[in-house]
Amino acid sequence: MGCRDVHAATVLAFLSGTASVAGLLAAVLLPNWRQMRLYTYNKNERNVTVYTGLWIKCARFDGSRDCVIYDPQWYTAVDQLDLRVLQFALPLSMFTAVSALFLCMIGMCNTAFVSSVPNVKLAKCLVNSAGCHLVAGLLFLLACAICLTPSIWVIFYNNYLNRKYEPIFSFDISVFIAIASAGGLFFTSIMLFLWYCACKSLPSPFWQPLYSHAPSMHSYASQPYSARSRLSAVEIDIPVVTHSS
């Protein structure tokens, strides 16, 4: 597809970014970042598993889906450093990714709806599709780094807790959701960078809208020969010297 059309790569990047943001939202809300399994030697009692999230905590007996203890105020008393960092990192990553989606949408709207020849007065105030997609790709890459780093740290911090206390801690499904969402954000940035590298040689400047013809075709036109001939009133004869052997 042409670079001046809504390209399949940009549409795929937008869909991938939207799915990644949805995955981050699920990872933020689900209480499945860490499990703490408590064993009992009393045969009349059942083992308890505590499911820890970023905002809530839920304790369940084995074989039951009902929360015996449900703490909706857990976010105010988080005592685990990795989860406390994630409380700030994941919303920041979501905000960055949503901003990138907004820029990507502006770029596609510029491509689809802006006229082929830009308005000269507005040319300095508009951002072209290539500029929007480049900045959106950088924001997606930043959101990936903000999300991925603390999510991987949870795995190592879980091993630290098992060595410090007892081997009763294990990371849960939200860790994998966050890492997969970070991978989706990275894939989205790669798609936008590929589009930009393929279309950056266009004649349009970085901060002006794309248009269908080169600027020189609109700005310069050759004058007829009769008009040019009147400009020269003095003829200059240049002698040519030849050497004979």
Low-confidence stretches: 120-126, 202-232
Global morphology: elongated
CATH topology of the domain at 8-32 and 78-114 and 125-199: Butyryl-CoA Dehydrogenase, subunit A, domain 3
Strand fraction equals 5-15%
Q: Rg, please?
A: 31 Å
- Helical residues, percent: 40-55%
How many E strands? 5
Looking across the biggest beta sheet, what order are the strands in? 4-3-2-1-5
Broad structural category? alpha+beta
What's the oligomerization state? single chain
Distance between the termini: 64 Å
For the largest beta-sheet, the strand count, sense and barrel status come to: 5 strands, antiparallel
CATH class of the domain at 8-32 and 78-114 and 125-199 reads Mainly Alpha
Named at the architecture level, the CATH assignment of the domain at 8-32 and 78-114 and 125-199 is: Up-down Bundle
Total number of helices: 6
- State the order of secondary-structure elements, H for helix, E for strand: HEEEEHHEHHH
The whole-number mean of residue pLDDT values reads 76
GO cellular component, one term: bicellular tight junction
Organism: Malurus elegans
Subcellular location: Cell junction, Tight junction; Membrane
Main location: other
In short:
This protein is of the alpha+beta class and 245 residues long.
